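Appendix C reproduces, verbatim, an entry submitted by the partner laboratory led by Prof. M.T., so that reviewers can inspect both the input and the predicted structure.
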Amino acid sequence: MARLADYFVVVGYDLDKRVEGEGQGRILQRFPEKDWEDSPFPQGVELFCQPSGWQLVPERQPASFFVAVLTDISSDRHYCACFTFWEGLDNPQLQKAEASEVDEVDEEPAVVQPAKVFAPKSLVLVSRLDYTEVFRNCLGLIYTIHVDSLSTPLETVIGNLLTCVIPIAGGSQRTITLGAGDRQVIQTPINDSLPVSGSSVAQLFRQLGIINVLYLFCAALTEHKILFLSSSYQRLTDACRGLLAIMFPLKYSFTYVPILPGKLLEVLSTPTPFIIGVNSFFRSETQELLDVIIADLDGGTVTIPECVHISLLPEPLLQQTQTALSMVLDPELEFADHAFPPVSTQPSALKIQDKEIRAVFLWLFARLFQGYRWCLHIIRIHPEPVIRFHKAAFLGQRTLSEDDFLMKVLDGMAFAGFVSERGPPYRATDLFDDLVANEVERIRQEEACPHKVMTHVKELAEQLFKNENPYPAVAMHKVQRPSESSQNSAQNQTPFPVLDEVAVQLFIDHAAAKLKTAPPVVKAELKGMVPSGPPLGDFVDRNSNVMANSARRLEVVRNCITYIFENKMLEAKKLMPAVLRALKGRAARVCLTQELNQHVLQNRAVLDDQQFDYIVRMMNCTLQDCSHMDEHGIAAALLPLVTAFCRKLGAGITQFAYSCVQEHMVWTNMQFWEAMFYSDVQNHIRALYLETEEGEKNQEQQDGSGGGRGVSALELASEQNRLWPTLSKEMQTERVQKEESTVFSQAIHYANRMSYLLLPLDTSKNRLLRSTGLGDVESVSNSYVTNSIAGSMAESYDTESGFEDAESSDVANSVVRFINRFVDKVCNESGVTNEHLKALHTMIPDIVQMHIETLDAVHRESKRLPPIQKPKLLTPTLLPGEELVMDGMRVHLIPDGREEATGAMGGPPLLPAEGAIFLTTYRLIFKGTPTDPLVGEQVVTRSFPIASLTKEKRISVSLPMDQFVQEGLQLRSCTFQLMKIAFDEEVASDLAEVFRKHMHKLRYPQHVQGTFAFTVGQCGKMVVEHKTKDKNQSLKTLSKNLVKSAKRTIGRQYVTRKKYSPPTWENRSSFQSELDEDEISVSEEVDQSSLTLSSTIRSSDRQTMSNVVERACCRDYQRLGLGTLSNSLTRSKNEPFRISTVNRMYTVCRSYPGLLIVPQSIPDTTIQRICRCYRQNRFPVVCWRNSRTKAVLLRSAGLHAKGVVGFFKSPNAPTSVPSQADSTSLEQEKYLQAIISSMPSYSESSGRNTLSGFTSTHMSTSDSSDKLRQPKIGALMKQVMGAKEDVPGTFSRGGKWGSIRGSGRLSAYNPDVGTRLAGKESPQPNGGPSEAMFLRQQKAYLYIIGDKAQLKGGKQDSFQQWEVVPIEVCDVRQVKNSFKKLMKACVPSSLILDPNTSFLRCLEESDWMTLLHRVLQVSVLVVELLDQGSSVMVSLEDGWDVTTQVVSLVQLLSDPYYRTFDGFRLLVEKEWLSFGHRFSHRGAQTLGSQSSGFTPVFLQFLDCVHQIHLQFPMEFEFSQYYLKFLAYHYVSNRFRTFLLDSDYERIELGVLYEEKGERKSPQVCKSVWDYIDRLNKKTPVFYNYMYSPEDEEMLRPYTFISNLKVWDFYMEETLSEGPSYDWEARGRQERVAEDTAEKPDTSGPKSQRRIVWPCYDNLSKVVPDAITKLLQDLQSLEAELGQTSEKWKDTWDKMKTTQRTETKLESKPSFSSSLLMSSNLSHQRRSQGVYLQESAVGSSINLALDCEASATSTPVAGRPSTSTLYSQFQSTESENRSFEGILFKKGALLKPWKPRWFVLDKTKHQLRYYESRQDKECKGVIELAEVESVTPGTPAMGAPKNIEEKAFFDLKTTKRVYNFCAQDSLNAQLWMDSVQSCLSDA
């Protein structure tokens, strides 16, 4: 029973305490005056009566009523019902004004004060019960008695009110009266644990809407701050009540103030969560609250600030809840679209609707918390049940461990209250208990069907309604209201009277006395066992994402474990990867723990090393995927196992598995240990009571969840609680003690367990606490940290112990602290006595210390173990001269974004591989074996030259096999290679750092002489070229000496020379910086030697000049007929060009070669002046001439800006004084004119070569020619220039032309213009142009291809005969960025998942193809112009990037010579090397150029050549492989060819001419060309078999982007041997392979199948093309027959000649000739492929094929043997070979003896010798006419061993003596006789 009202208070306006406009209230009277003992009088009632403040108002306001809620210190709620009315009084303002007379009036003349004002007065009831309507009626009655002056005394009414007592619950109905003729019925709820809501919930949903309320609901549950705004106080209270009602069964335990007075608004900035209501009057003050969710009830909005994130209900719950709510609130929605809607679908009445909404939320909670009782741990039963909730297990079994909402709810205070209130197993139950236990099955089945859910909701709503209104027929209320008249005539109303306190007090005392005598009311509380409902596991599996074919996976796990324990290690090893993959799934992990459990006997399982290793690996893998929460209980299940599995290390020393599985977050998580501890305690306590009750039926212990076949722990506890009151005192204490000691013993056990898992094996390294140190939460699978964990982390390790250099004692301390905190927490919660707790605290340090000692021994022994069999490190094959800088470091090669190697595209997973990385002076090499055991015997090699490294970044990698996250490196190379390596744990991190430093040093040497090409084979010895005295200099002084000797060399080469002009400033800086290491600059040194001026070449210069002349360019100039350099320096005057030596000292232009082709008429002095107009002094020089049209191709840099304007000025412009600029521009014009004059077409047309003549002839036509010039440049030009206003289009001519694509757009456009450009009429229908000549002026004689940006502002002059073609040129920066993107596209660093970054998309974005297209397009334009007889000058940027590309491509397309080996080499040497393309700078080869980055201009050129090669496969002598070879080695720095930036720099270092001299170390090639020549002699790999050029063929490739292909150089990789461009490394591997292959031949029949893997095998080697294959077979057959084999080139050439003759003999072309020598191919575009015509001609190719088919090597009858294969056509035998055989011949001076095939020929009277019998080319001839005598000889030095003396004879000729040696004396005699007879015959 409880009082209806505790206090009645009258509160009035306090006239005395008014502060400026702010009134205050005061309590006028309160009854009773004494506080009740059970509920003290709440403070601050007067504030809550007028929440907006006490104010006087000029007009009377209607009476108001609301209920405020106050919470006292013991968190009980007091309901204050406030009834406020207004009483008139004289205005206090006026009285004050009269008192202070006139002063005030002056100030406020405007405000007229009313005479009468009204003050508020409140009647307040304070109660602990919430009966709003009853309070409203009671207070209304008191007011009515007062206003209507009824006869009933107020004291009586109030006395009755304060003494009225009603039951709290039980569903009774009580009628009360206050003694004024009134009657009210109060219904108490049946169960007071369910909240009473009236219709407040329905109101709340009406005001805010479904979604908004759901947001508020989730916010309240996840502890956010919520603020309601409304102008009605009662609505605020109702809304807050409604929100609490839908949170049932959780109770809100934070600040709850439905009506907050304005004076207390600062409460809103409290840091704790709250639910508060505030009048809208204060809205503005709530604006700056940043983290408060504001719900405006009047406006129906909910505002969530940006910084607040509300976790919503997990799907599908959210959706289902919304659906259910809308069916309750808006049932018509469902039928809104029906044609025949049901007649009545009105929503229920508000009261019912209210209960229906609450029923939806009850249903929701039943689903959220279903099965929660199975996760309760009961850790004490007596004297009070202590219960803990196992959150992780609950989330894990619900598979909601990632769900934010549920996590926060379970961590919240409300849920903690829920567990302590509903956890006890023996108590009264309510609707929710019933629902969550018994209706789960029904909820589960119906959840998908909204109508069934609605039926259920209606049933629940009925129960809720019944709980609130147990009696439907309510007796009539009878309460008087004040009469209308009294309300209106309230003017003359008397104030509320002062009541007689004594009278009221008498009533109260009287009632109290009566209560004392009354018998106590006993309400029988129905306690019972709380049902648990079905266990969780049963209904979870359907929504846990069960992995596919999981049964198969579990099978794999079981088998693997069986194999391990049966010691079938190989089987286990094969299954291991599959097992580790399977362990990603939860089922497999659970299965693992169960399987392992079966192998443990009496808590022990001793394994051998390998078993132990496998078991530990599986455990680690299992734990690795568990989060730190261990929601699936995997770590919990493994905990007993890690202390069971062990291996013997030595005498009495055992290592347990726990020492190897410590690296996991779960062990440092306090919550995990607590849950484990509680679960164990529960098991033990359960066992305790099971024994006492039924000793004989002792059941086996259940697993951690406590559920199972026997009695569950909760059921047991409930039974014990029921019996507890019936036990005697002794029994009770005995049970309490037993339980307490159980908990205590468990605590000791756990202190041990925790020390096992927290102390690292090597206690000197504090691994665990630093690496997992509860700080880095990133490695945890869940991204958030719950508050409790964060708290425990903060405290876990005190800050004062810095773990960085922790001593072992520190480790011990931190572990002790961690265990102490754990023990404190669990012991306090489970009521362990203080003595026991103290004992534990003293024990823990000893436990830890003991454990450390045992660990030390284990650690010591475990170090002695042979390490786990890691794969042996394979050493890579090094090139001659290549040396290891760092020995192999064990690393893992991690797969990158290329899918082939990982097996993603089929084939075996070659990566990840385990091996070592080697750093040599030249390369970075990884060599190892795949970790996948199925391909474990393959070798994986990946390498790239150090010089090609473009980017290196650190990464951290977690390997699939191990648990550790390792540091690694990602290295990217511009040879399109990427290495992602992770260092093995055995590699110390400082070693990895050393590796990086060495790598950087090698990648960016100080000076170019530090590169591999220079240092090769020199470690220790002095550089070979410079012969200095001291040979054995240390490396430190090497670089200095290099520089010095380089200078000496320079000094020596030019003893006298032109006076040295200091380099221009831009060159000087770069030049000086290179030689800075030595303080002497070169210019000084040169000046010291007396230099004389000399314009002619002096004899001392001859040597230099002869060197220069031997350079490639010079040979080429002579081939092109561009001038000769005769000694007299006189030339025939009719030659238009001469070779100028003006730059022989590199003074005019540092980056040009020494000899240049300039017009005949231009003197050297002019050149020196002209060059200043051009950037870098690179003035125009001729580099090629068209042999037919005699048009020339020139190259230069762009003009300097000032030169441009001068250049285009009209020459006749009158200038008062000829300034310097003018004179140069005139000279420039002269220069161009001289070039034009050199062209035969020009001299024909104008007849005279002077400028004046030219002007006069064209004066007359200037206007017309202006108009004519308009379309002159033609389509091609337009496209190349990318003219915006014209539509670019296609160009057609004679069928050879592709279309050209202009600035990104494509369309057709009149081809006429293009043909006009070509100087011809529009094409005839057959495509042949008509020969009618076009107007001559139409065509300019010289086109200057210039940069658009450069040529702004220049006016084209119509008189001049040259024309400028402005084009947009690709910037070096563009090339650099484009290349970066291209590399990322071709070799992505990680797998591409996003479709937007697919390969083709990335390729397109890189723009690489667009750049190729531009370069090719310009080149094709230039080819066209040259072909029509116009000269072209390419003058772009600095003249060394794009210019070089265009000029080289033009020559390649125009001149077939450049498409041969020699020609291409010459082209590169001439245009790229001599003309100063800055290889070192663009390749960022040294420290100085590191910042400029890698810009592959040359690679772009090679790619263009590759594109042309694809379109014209028969025009090139070299193969695609040749281009790839160059592309690889131009960045590899293996050869010196592509080092340095110009000839000048090469001379500076003495590199240029040394190639001529004798080589000291033959095995090291310094020039890539020599290397290619050598290789080409050995193998046809560079040769293109389809080569059959057409004479004078100009190539015009298509340049559309659609015609360009991605070069396979960018994509291919051979993991079997690394890149195939270093042949030495490759050949050796083959040899090794052959040796091993020979051994196991006996093993039985071998399969002929070969599996070829992309990305692994070298395809050209494994699957060679037919011709290579035949040549190889030929060689091997010859070897078998014991003949010395021919060179492949000879064989090939022979075949070609044979076939030519054959083709002539036969009428029909044979298959092979059409394939190879098709000079008669129909002249079509040959990129389309070659048509093979079948014919059965027994040509040599077919023959060889037959040979191969018959496996025997002996010649088959009826078919000529291989040795005579070629001799049938060209007889070299019989008639002119009199005598032949092998003789050893001694070579010339210092040369060894060699066996040669000698032929004595009588007819020709000579003795010839050949290398071998098959050799067709004679090596030497001894004319018999010159022979003087033949005499027996004596053995000389180095003669063949074991040969008798008499076998030697000498042949003396007039010139020298030949020493011979035959096989024996007999043979010698025969020879001597034969020669003698020949002599005598003569």
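DSSP finds 63 helices and 42 strands in the chain. Additional entries are available on request from the coordinating office.
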